[in-house]
Amino acid sequence: MATTGSARHIPGFNAPSVGFEDPFAMLQACHERVLRTLALLARLRAHVLQHGADDDARQAARDVLRYFDIAAPLHHQDEELHVFPLLQADASADVRALVLRLQQDHVCMTADWAAARAPLQALVEHGQDADGATPLFRFGPQDDAALDRFVSRYGDHIAAEEGMAYPAAMRLLPPATLAAMGREMAARRVVG
After folding, report:
1. Domain boundary assignment for the chain
2. Homologous superfamily of 21-127+138-187 in CATH?
3. pTM as predicted
């Protein structure tokens, strides 16, 4: 498994270079990062089957945890504050119904993440044996079900947002509102 401390070091794992001046490009870049992190999770699961809880597996699990603990909630907040209210107020009935589903997805995704997070945290905390050997670690059937549910819901959610919600919102937002949206998104990410 090709991890050396961070997902940024995985070949082909380069963050898209967009800024907050184009908030919808940033939202879509976040989706790309979600999909890359989910792909890392898939590789991690395969790796654990072959190699157990070695250093690479534990680091990959840390990377997945970090992304979905920190970045994903900010992304959901961006949508909840800037995209969904606009669509609820001004979009067609079909889009408003989709927004209700997307909002419910966010609630379910939070619960899905709590269930998926537990086995990843257990993997991170699964240290080496006293003799330094890589210990046996396996995801159980409930763990696999939780991870599968999390991955599946995210994929469907992203497709609905990019296929219908984002295009509808982009048609409704004037440039000045887009600029303010981007500034607010950036401000939420300022540390300290």
Report:
1. 21-127+138-187
2. nmb1532 protein domain like (1.20.120.520)
3. 0.85
pLDDT at residue 127 is higher than 80: no
Judged by phi (left if over 0) then psi (alpha if -120 to 50, else beta), residue 81 lies in: alpha
Q: Is the distance from CB of 56 to CB of 1 less than 8 angstroms?
A: yes
Q: Which two tokens stand for residue 162?
A: 């990019």
Specify the pLDDT at position 10: 30
Higher pLDDT, 186 or 10: 186
Q: Give the residue from 64, 28, 29 showing the smallest Cα distance to 43.
A: 64
